[in-house]
Design goal:
mainly alpha; 2 helices; elongated
């Protein structure tokens, strides 16, 4: 990273990670990202109340 571009580079990486996780995780598991990952990303990706899928119960 170069001086002055740190925030822009960080935002680009966050967008890439977010898209990659959504593409892989949501497509394969059909579940939203866990709150622990959403907390790392910005709040605009957090699902609205009622939009999330119930987590699977382990048997």
């Amino acid at each position: 990273m170069t001086a002055g571009r740190g925030r822009a580079d960080t935002d680009a990486v966050a967008r890439w990670i977010r898209q990659s996780l959504h593409t892989t995780y949501d497509t394969v598991l059909r579940e939203p990202l866990p709150d622990s990952l959403l907390d790392v990303l910005d709040n605009r990706d957090r699902p609205q109340e009622g939009d999330s899928v119930e987590p699977r119960r382990r048997s």
